[in-house]
Automatic annotation (TrEMBL):
<dbReference type="Pfam" id="PF00041">
    <property type="entry name" value="fn3"/>
</dbReference>
<dbReference type="Pfam" id="PF00622">
    <property type="entry name" value="SPRY"/>
</dbReference>
<dbReference type="InterPro" id="IPR043136">
    <property type="entry name" value="B30.2/SPRY_sf"/>
</dbReference>
<protein>
    <recommendedName>
        <fullName>E3 ubiquitin-protein ligase Midline-1</fullName>
        <ecNumber>2.3.2.27</ecNumber>
    </recommendedName>
</protein>
<dbReference type="GO" id="GO:0061630">
    <property type="term" value="F:ubiquitin protein ligase activity"/>
</dbReference>
<dbReference type="InterPro" id="IPR003879">
    <property type="entry name" value="Butyrophylin_SPRY"/>
</dbReference>
<feature type="domain" description="B30.2/SPRY">
    <location>
        <begin position="93"/>
        <end position="286"/>
    </location>
</feature>
<keyword id="KW-0206">Cytoskeleton</keyword>
<dbReference type="GO" id="GO:0046872">
    <property type="term" value="F:metal ion binding"/>
</dbReference>
<comment type="function">
    <text>Has E3 ubiquitin ligase activity towards IGBP1, promoting its monoubiquitination, which results in deprotection of the catalytic subunit of protein phosphatase PP2A, and its subsequent degradation by polyubiquitination.</text>
</comment>
<dbReference type="InterPro" id="IPR013320">
    <property type="entry name" value="ConA-like_dom_sf"/>
</dbReference>
<dbReference type="InterPro" id="IPR001870">
    <property type="entry name" value="B30.2/SPRY"/>
</dbReference>
<dbReference type="InterPro" id="IPR003877">
    <property type="entry name" value="SPRY_dom"/>
</dbReference>
<feature type="region of interest" description="Disordered">
    <location>
        <begin position="98"/>
        <end position="152"/>
    </location>
</feature>
<comment type="similarity">
    <text>Belongs to the TRIM/RBCC family.</text>
</comment>
<dbReference type="InterPro" id="IPR050617">
    <property type="entry name" value="E3_ligase_FN3/SPRY"/>
</dbReference>
<feature type="compositionally biased region" description="Polar residues">
    <location>
        <begin position="98"/>
        <end position="112"/>
    </location>
</feature>
């Protein structure tokens, strides 16, 4: 039997992020006669294809990408998308025949990002690691720019990435704030008004004891746990939706279905206390394969 050892994924920031993964494979029995090997790679987006793979491997090779004639016991796969599950099979081949490994499953992390301090409203303070934003009532000398939130009531900041493909997941830790908004916006979304009050942004908002989702000034009340402390955001740009979850209780809160026409970025408003973002996360297992609903 062949076995897998995975080195890991290497990521860089960008509008289109891809992972490179080096796979190491070996056998518990002596394979001195190993001459060639081929590695088979297949991507699937939900668990239904996992069962299809297990039961239909021999009948579904057309859906696999095959890399033949690997001469060593390692291979680097390029171009793996963020937030995606892959299955790998290694097949050892020589004159006497062939032997295949057990399927190896691997999940790439979502695209990492940080807060962009150059976009932060002058009444907000971004931490030195660019992961926390808090309301700051002290006088600020931040200069005005078209990239900075400027409204007297829209205390916003965006993430330092623009996404135009793939699946991505991040979370926001609610640091005692009772008035905030979390979501996504087009790169062209105006910075002089509340996010969610235009056609270019989609957000979940809390205002004291009221929770709503908002887009283009239309609001829909939602009922999360009163102790909501961590909001998960799952964006599938290609499938056309963004979904909000209670990341602790795994409660689905709302899904916006969108035919995206521009790159989007994560966006946050904070009117009191603070928010901290967690990024570069794998998509939680319980969210894999779920059909998004409203």
């Amino acid at each position: 039997m062949l076995t897998f050892n995975f080195l890991g994924a290497r990521s860089t920031l960008g509008a289109n992020i891809y992972h490179n993964m080096t796979l190491y494979f070996c056998s518990p029995v002596k394979f001195s006669f190993l001459q060639d090997a081929e590695i088979i790679k297949h991507m699937y987006c939900n668990f239904s294809l996992c069962s299809f793979f297990v039961t239909g491997l021999c009948n579904s090779l057309d859906s696999w990408m095959i890399v033949p004639n690997i001469k060593q016991n390692q291979y680097t796969v390029h171009g793996l998308q963020s937030g995606t599950k892959y299955v790998f099979v290694v097949k050892a081949i020589n004159q006497a025949g062939s032997r295949s490994s057990e399927p190896g499953t691997l999940k790439t992390n979502s695209q990492p990002f940080k807060l962009d301090p150059k976009s932060a409203h002058k009444k907000l303070k971004v931490s030195h690691d660019n992961l926390t934003v808090e309301r700051d009532e002290t006088t600020s000398k931040k200069g005005h720019s078209q990239d900075r939130f400027s409204s007297q009531s829209s205390y916003g900041v965006v993430g330092n990435v623009f996404i135009d493909s793939g699946r991505h997941y991040w979370e926001a830790l609610i640091g005692g704030s009772t008035w905030y908004a979390i979501g996504i916006a087009y790169k062209s979304a105006p910075k002089h008004e509340w996010i969610g009050k235009n056609q270019a942004s989609w957000v979940l908002c809390r205002c004291n004891n009221s929770w709503v989702v908002r887009h283009n000034s239309k609001e829909l009340a939602i009922e999360p746990s009163p102790h909501l402390r961590r909001v998960g955001v799952l964006l599938d740009y290609d499938a056309g939706y963004v979904t909000f979850y209670d990341a602790v209780g795994s409660q689905h809160l709302h899904t916006f279905h969108v035919s995206f026409i521009q790159p989007v970025c994560p966006v946050f408003n904070v009117w009191n206390k603070c928010l901290t973002i967690l990024t570069g996360l794998p998509i939680p297992d319980h969210l894999e394969g779920l059909e998004p609903s409203n």
